[in-house]
Design goal:
By secondary structure, this protein is an all-alpha fold. The strands form three sheets. A two-stranded antiparallel sheet has the order 1-6. A hairpin with a 2-residue loop joins strand 3 and strand 4. The chain is globular. The chain starts with a helix and ends in a 31-residue tail after the last helix. The relative contact order is 0.18.
């Protein structure tokens, strides 16, 4: 086999299915094992040429998206490096507790604060190196400080702490039951509800990992930047490495810069020439505005705030971004057409809103619908029909179209990958599933996790789910829970395939609506049952995809699979216990504030209120709004329509197989066809431009720079931004209790919207 890059990476440079390159259905024999060893050796030689700048421009050039797994990341490994050390458990448990407590506190705060992975990564790097320098390391202290802080300890800490540093979805259900339905779950039941809903996802992930983690084609774009940063920090010479110097330089620049758009000069978060010229026109606001929440679509607006833009545009593959941009182009047309065409009485309600409205345009009194927590038809007759804003209804339709299209798209384009994987579950199947991947080749020195572990985990999690569902008086029948879990497993396979192969992740909100919808059909008129249906549909699916991403990160940095698994489980248990303890403490001390509409300066029940409202709208009003005679009856029908929408691209590919139609993804285009119906949108246009610049211009014209620095740049931009954002939240934005606004001036006019557009209606 030649050492030329094209031959070193024979499976990476061709457009074939995983079954043809990364996963081969053949007998394992001595020749095959020798070929894998030769492949791994030649990849090492190739990486050495890249590292020493001895490779040609063509060798640096990334042709196919998944080549970054080899050309950006190293397969380097030292199996003797310890991963489970005193530092791992001390920092892992410490940051897990820090993240879980903080995330739960901010679930009940007026401000939203997320504990980001990059923030934890940077902090743990500083603390880990400090412990390596300060702690004694001789004699009996060798286990406490076995030497320099290494990459495996660092990754294990981040997997554990990032798993814990969230407010779990189950907390929303438990807190809503406590606050609004007078049903306080006991501690054991609540904690097992938290743990069980997450373990289901881990069970799914274990069953899917052979197909969606090990092969080269499943490169998980969102993990590349993080893995690249881990390798730069631990493998490069800290004083002379250009990558490390670039990271810390950009990190510091962003740390300083972000103070300006976030606090001093908020106008920079969204610059709209049209709104600056006319800040009274509602048309200008709807089309060109977007600097404030639910303001407008942000057409031709520009943001200078990296906290809004984010580094997705630097690491998402080119074709993912092209499909997203096509969808956004449709968004501008569809949202404007629906609203100004007055479809579904659009002009009677705000242009953008996620609330539910009465016929007179006021917000619908959802809680007045219920009697003993269940839908009351007599009260519905008094209140009258409910309506969405037209753009919100359009979003529900495009999300269902996307969901339907996902089935056809994934099963057609990836069937050759799925088929041999499914055969491995046949107990009479004699043909093993063999993976050819240079990163996985290095993982073979570690003990793998047997599949039966995950079957046992899944069985235990299913038992916990049924028990807690019954014990929590959810009103969700056991058969409905089982149906939802089976659907969740199938959707986990479909969405994880897209996340692994192209990096598409915008499925959380649409899938949550889908689960609420099908639960409303199975168990109509019961909001609490609807919450549990959404919990056991969406949450395991999200956890499955998160764990698959962590398993891939572990494969990239050569963390033993059993360590990755253990860190996930430990982080889940720690997070669940602390989530529950903090929730009970906060609710007991601040119940009145959480139940009030406005809350207080320190506490707000807005997240719980919103979650309860969604459950009532779907669980209580679902049949009336989406049934045969409902105003929005097309929303569920769009699921069936979506199944057929990928067929034109498939037909075009059959007729013109070399025209590139296989690169167009109907699910992604449809999901983004109303993506601007919520939130702040001034970051969309700069994200488009930066993405094309990075993934097309730099990648094709300057392949050496792209391969060596693009992903480090992405991590640095996000890292500096997230650290200063965390500090600003406490120092000036009121996270500690009292906000400290920057003195008012033209660029910081607190009486106007951020981009000077007319004030939004909602």
């Amino acid at each position: 086999m030649s050492s030329d890059a094209a031959h070193v990476l024979p499976e990476i440079g061709e457009k074939t299915s995983v079954s043809e390159d990364s996963i081969d259905k053949k007998e394992v024999d001595a020749i095959e094992l020798t070929d894998d060893a030769v492949m791994a050796k030649e990849v090492e030689e190739f990486e050495e040429r890249l590292q020493n700048d001895e490779a040609t421009e063509d060798e640096y050039r990334v042709q196919e998206a998944y080549e970054v797994a080899i050309k950006v990341l190293s397969t380097r490994d030292d199996p003797d490096l310890p991963s489970l050390t005193f530092r791992t458990f001390f920092l892992g448990l410490g940051f897990s507790a820090f993240g879980a407590v903080l995330a739960q506190i901010y679930y009940f705060k007026p401000q939203t604060l997320l504990v980001s992975t990059l923030f934890l990564l940077v902090l743990s790097y500083w603390f880990g190196n400090a412990m390596a320098m300060i702690l004694p390391s001789r004699g009996i202290f060798r286990w406490i400080n076995p030497g320099p802080f290494n990459i495996k300890e660092h990754v294990a800490i981040i997997i554990m702490s990032s798993t814990a540093a969230v407010s779990a979805t189950a907390i929303q259900v438990i807190s809503v039951q406590d606050l609004y339905y007078n049903n306080q779950l006991n501690a054991g039941l609540a904690i097992f509800t938290l743990i069980g809903s997450q373990l289901l996802g881990y069970g799914y992930a274990g069953l899917l990992q052979d197909m969606l983690v090990k092969p080269t084609k499943c490169f998980w774009p969102t993990t590349i930047s993080t893995a690249n940063l881990f390798q730069a920090l631990h493998f490069d010479n800290q004083m002379t490495s250009k990558r490390v110097r670039l990271f810390w330089t950009v990190f510091c620049v962003m740390f300083v810069w972000e103070i300006i758009p976030q606090w001093i000069f908020p106008l920079l978060t969204g610059v709209s020439i049209f709104c600056l010229a006319n800040n009274h026109s509602t048309v200008f606001r709807n089309i060109f505005g977007g600097g404030s929440n639910n303001e407008g679509m942000g057409l031709l607006s520009w943001s200078f705030d990296w906290n809004l833009i984010g580094s997705d545009c630097l690491f998402n593959p080119l074709w993912l971004q092209i499909n997203q941009d096509i969808g956004i182009f449709f968004t501008y047309i569809l949202m404007a057409s629906v609203y100004y065409g007055n479809l579904w009485r659009a002009k009677d309600f705000p242009f953008m809103s996620q609330a539910i409205f009465a016929e007179d345009g006021s917000q619908y009194n959802q809680t007045a619908l219920l009697t003993d927590g269940k839908f009351d038809p007599a009260k519905y007759e008094q209140l009258g029909p409910a309506f969405f804003s037209a753009t919100n209804a359009l979003y529900l339709m495009t999300s269902n179209l996307s969901l339907g299209a996902t089935f056809t798209h994934v099963f057609f384009w990836h069937w050759q990958d799925i088929k041999p994987f499914l055969k491995t579950f046949n107990p009479w199947n004699k043909t093993p599933l063999v993976v050819h991947d240079p990163h996985y080749e290095k993982m073979k020195v570690y003990k793998q996790i047997p599949r039966w572990w995950y079957f046992v985990l899944l069985a235990c999690a299913y038992a916990i789910a049924q028990a807690t569902n019954y014990g929590g008086h959810s009103g969700l029948p056991w058969w409905a829970l089982t149906v939802i879990l089976l659907i969740s497993l199938v959707l986990s396979l479909l969405f994880a395939t897209l996340a692994a192969t192209i990096g598409f992740r915008e499925f959380s909100s649409s899938a949550n609506g889908f689960y609420q919808m099908i639960t409303a059909y199975m168990v109509p008129g019961q909001p609490v049952a609807n919450m549990y249906g959404a919990l056991y549909g969406q949450h395991p699916q999200g956890q499955c995809i998160a764990m698959l991403g962590d398993l891939k990160l572990g494969q990239y940095v050569k963390l033993p699979p059993r360590v990755t698994f253990s860190m996930q489980i430990l982080g889940t248990v720690v997070g669940a216990i602390l989530n529950y303890v903090m929730m009970v403490t906060i609710i007991d001390a601040n119940r009145d504030a959480l139940l009030s509409i406005s809350g207080t300066r320190l506490w707000s029940g807005q997240n719980a209120q919103s979650y309860n409202s969604n459950a009532i709208s779907w669980g209580g009003l679902g049949p009336q709004m989406f049934g045969t005679n409902g105003v929005y009856h097309m929303v569920p029908i769009c699921l069936a329509i979506g199944v057929f929408l990928p067929l034109p691209f498939i037909a075009a590919w059959y007729m013109w197989p070399k025209a590139g139609f296989e690169n167009f993804s109907t699910p992604i285009i449809l999901q983004y066809s109303c993506v601007l119906s919520v939130g702040v949108n001034t970051q969309v246009n700069p994200g488009m431009v930066i993405g094309l610049f990075s993934q097309w211009w730099v990648r094709t014209r300057y392949p050496r720079w792209f391969t060596k620095y693009n992903y480090i740049m992405a991590a640095a931009l996000d890292g500096g931004t997230q650290v200063i954002s965390f500090i600003l939240n406490f120092a000036v934005f009121g996270a500690s209790g009292t906000p400290h606004n920057f003195p008012q001036w033209w660029g910081n006019d607190l009486s106007l919207s951020a981009d000077r557009c007319a004030q939004a209606e909602n």
